[in-house]
Specification:
The protein has about 750 residues and is an alpha+beta fold. It folds into two domains: about 210 residues, Beta-galactosidase, Chain A, domain 5 (Distorted Sandwich); about 450 residues, GH92 mannosidase fold (2-Layer Sandwich), CATH 3.30.2080.10. About 30% of the residues lie in helices and about 20% in strands. The chain contains 19 helices and 35 strands. A nine-stranded antiparallel β-sheet has the order 3-6-7-8-9-16-13-12-11. It has a six-stranded mixed β-sheet with strand order 17-30-31-35-32-33, covered by helices on one side. The chain has a five-stranded antiparallel β-sheet with strand order 4-5-10-15-14, with no helix packed on it. Helix 6 crosses helix 7 and helix 7 packs across helix 8. It is globular and about 80 Å long. About 55% of the residues are buried.
């Protein structure tokens, strides 16, 4: 009996082992795009969810099914183009069967059997009994509408603020957006309609009274209706939707395939490739046949062989999305910086943009971080842009534009005060706002602006040094220490000061500052902004009393209670979700914080924390994102952290080592070389680095330089389930030398 049991156990073990091997082979043989799950995060924890967007990488044309919330099974017509990240559809297509009297501009449908892939969409409109298929190209797309009832069949086209024109079996039109921006469309059907009629802002296309399939293709443009027709003709020659989807699938696999990860856990790969897909939504390429419309001056320009990109929320994306592009697609990043320079040239004042969108620069959030993207690109070897022009536009945007958040006004009293005193003053407890540049809803955000501008001025100092301007280099380097002016030596927090130079008292670093802490910080509280000195971490360590005290303060942040019930906490700080103590995994200023242990001699805590955060907050499910995903702002953190390193300081050509999520990562560099990260023995438990080699050399430090990997190579990590308290404790001061800072 005992032998039978042994044989049975052995047989079961073999079956399980074979099954696991087959599953592993299936996982690792799938294409990258097969792991993309656009539904991750479609139910938000508190604010804005992700959207299941169908598009090609960085393309002008984007759509997603419009619905109030994922949990509501109603979609509002079919989208034709979404003109901004998280925006609504400019035009709408509504299939309809029934009496013409029941036609509405936009029809809502219950739906089921929805399939969303980056390159393909399909859905069953439930009560309408209509089946939909869709595939996009860069500036054009195909819809396939299968009417299944023997009733009058219509397609309804809608524009919310524009006009249509009928030409044979084609319809063209436009919709007016903001700032002299129009989006144009050209639509034609394969089947000849019986009639087309126009009524105000809608067009009704009638196809008869029987069940039938209608194939529709269309082009979009920001230049003209004629250009929309040209874009369609250039990209789509027929009505073969499957061929178009196959082409889109190939394009996505090429883009996602720049990073190949190996893992037997399909969920880990799904989170990774979905995150990489999110990083490739924006910014969008506005060039159309060598020309582009720019909302920055309301004109059409020749692109001279350099595509024009916009729709980039720089406050969100400078930290990791831009550095990720430098790593895997430096030519694209160069084109983006060239686009910034053009925007500056086209605007009334030669200022770098802060929130460039399709409709112009909305100047949202705080600080002027385009300078960080330029400094990081140049430090990592990108040279195909005019550095002098970029520097001048960055400098003038910081010196001549007000530092007040959410404002594009010229500099005023607040800016003069900063230049003289080295900090943005906070209002006293009962003091009323009188500065006209300040947005009444967004407030002064004095600590966030002081810290952010200190960093921006450090970036200026590095660009000045690159240009050989020694005087400007030393001037801005000195200004980059302005964060010291609001550091409270008693509490070791950055603490708002009045114009008289007094710290605001009494003060609570968790809750003072009103909604979003905007009266003093910005979307996040004092615990998050305690660490917002990316450019001089060595000095921050000294301000806080040295490395042991610095690490103890980090520990306390992850353990500090919220201080109120969730309803009370999030009523004041709705952006600071994804909490671990006072740490917020949901908002960009927090992303570099777990890596700071590396700078103070306790890298095993970085390894533990990154592993925990990835597993806790980023999952393959509808609530698998802890906060707003701003077009690569958050997901670029996931991509970097999953492959094992992170760009803590854009502008310093170096990466801080965390802990890989995968046993093997291959990064395709633009020169054809491969940089590989190998984590031997890697698992959720084996998250601690025991030893390392970089390009064949023993590596006992927690960072490496961009030059170490730009020509390919290998970072090999030996992983274990217990910390190695000796590995990586070498002083990091050499990485951030006094000369640099």
């Amino acid at each position: 009996m005992k032998n039978i049991r042994i044989r049975l156990v052995g047989l079961l073990f073999m079956v399980f082992a074979q099954s696991a091997a087959i599953q592993s082979k299936q996982i690792n043989n799938s294409s990258p795009v097969d792991y993309v799950n656009p539904y991750i995060g479609n139910i938000s924890h508190l604010l804005v969810p992700t959207f299941p967007t169908i598009h090609l990488p960085n393309s002008l044309l984007r759509v997603y099914p419009e619905r109030g919330d994922y949990t509501v099974d109603v979609i509002k017509g079919l989208p034709l183009i979404v003109t901004s990240h998280r925006g609504s559809s400019a035009f709408n297509l509504s299939p309809y069967q029934g009496d013409a009297a029941g036609i509405k501009p936009i029809i809502s449908y219950t739906y089921e059997n929805e399939i969303v892939k980056p390159y393909y969409y399909a859905v069953r409109l439930d009560e309408a009994a209509t089946d939909i298929k869709y595939a996009p190209s860069h500036q054009s797309a195909i819809y396939q509408i299968n009417f299944t009832q023997n009733k009058p069949c219509y397609l309804i086209l809608n524009t919310r603020n524009g006009a249509f024109e009928i030409k044979g079996n084609a319809v063209s039109g436009y919709q007016q957006l903001k700032n002299k921006t129009k989006v144009f469309i050209y639509v034609e059907t394969q089947q000849q309609p019986i009639s087309i009629s126009k009524d105000s802002l809608i067009v009704k296309i009638y196809f008869g009274n029987k069940a039938q399939q209608i194939n529709l293709r269309y082009g979009v443009s920001f230049i003209s209706e004629t250009q929309a027709k040209k874009n369609l003709a250039r990209e789509i020659k027929d009505y073969n939707l499957q061929a178009l989807a196959n082409t889109g699938r190939k394009i996505w696999n090429e883009a996602l395939g720049k990073i190949i990860v190996t893992d037997n856990n399909a969920n880990n790969k799904t989170v990774f490739y979905t995150s990489l897909y999110r990083c490739l939504e924006r910014p969008v390429n506005m060039s159309e046949d060598g020309n582009y419309f720019s909302a920055f001056d309301g004109k059409v320009h020749a692109d001279n062989g350099q595509p024009f990109y916009t729709d980039d929320w720089i406050w969100d994306t400078y930290r990791a999305a831009h550095p990720l592009r430098i790593l895997v697609n430096p030519k694209l990043e160069t084109n983006i910086i060239q686009s910034y320079i053009r925007m500056a040239e086209q605007m009334d004042r030669f200022w770098m943009p802060t929130f460039p969108e399709v409709t112009g620069d909305s100047r949202r959030m705080n600080s002027n971080h385009a300078v960080a993207t330029v400094a990081d690109a140049y430090a990592k070897g990108l040279r195909d842009f005019d550095l002098q022009k970029a520097y001048t536009a960055c400098k003038q945007g910081i010196e001549q534009k007000t530092l007040a958040p959410w404002s594009g006004k010229p500099a005023g009293w607040l800016d003069d005060f900063y230049k003289k005193n080295g900090y943005i003053p906070a209002l006293g407890i009962d003091e009323k706002e009188t500065v006209p540049e300040v947005n009444q809803g967004e407030k002064r955000q004095p600590i966030a602006v002081t810290l952010g501008t200190s960093y921006d001025q450090w970036c200026l100092s590095q660009l000045a040094k690159d240009l050989g301007d020694t005087s400007a280099y030393h001037f801005y380097l000195k200004k980059s220490y302005n964060y010291r002016n609001v550091f409270n030596n008693q509490t070791h927090f950055f603490h708002p000061k009045t114009k008289e130079g007094n710290f605001i008292e009494p003060f609570d670093y968790r809750f003072s500052g009103g909604r979003g802490a905007r009266e003093y910080y910005g979307e996040n509280n004092g615990w998050i902004y305690r660490w917002d000195v990316q450019h001089n971490i060595a000095d921050l360590i000294q301000l806080m009393g040295g490395k042991p005290a610095f690490c103890a303060a980090l520990d306390s942040m992850f353990a500090e209670p919220m201080g109120r019930g969730k309803s009370g906490f999030y009523e004041l700080l709705p952006d600071q979700t994804g909490n671990v103590g006072q740490y917020s995994m949901a908002n960009e200023p927090a992303f570099h914080i777990p890596y700071l242990y590396n700078y103070a001699g306790q890298p095993w805590k970085t390894q533990k924390r990154i592993n925990t955060l990835l597993n806790q907050w980023f999952r393959n499910d509808l609530m698998g994102m802890p906060g707003d995903e701003d077009g690569g702002g958050m997901t670029s953190f996931i991509v970097f952290s999953s492959i094992g390193f992170y760009p803590v300081t854009p502008g310093v050509p170096a990466y801080s080592i965390g802990t890989p999520r995968f046993s093997n990562v291959k990064i395709q560099l633009d020169n054809g070389k491969i940089f590989e990260v190998i984590a031997n023995g890697n698992s959720t438990i084996n998250k601690y680095i025991q030893s390392a080699t970089l390009n064949g050399k023993n590596w006992n430090q927690t960072w490496f330089y961009h030059n170490d990997i730009k020509n390919g190579g290998k970072l090999i990590l030996q992983m274990g389930n217990k910390p190695n308290y000796q590995w990586g404790t070498k002083s990091i001061d050499t990485m951030l030398s006094a000369e640099q800072l």
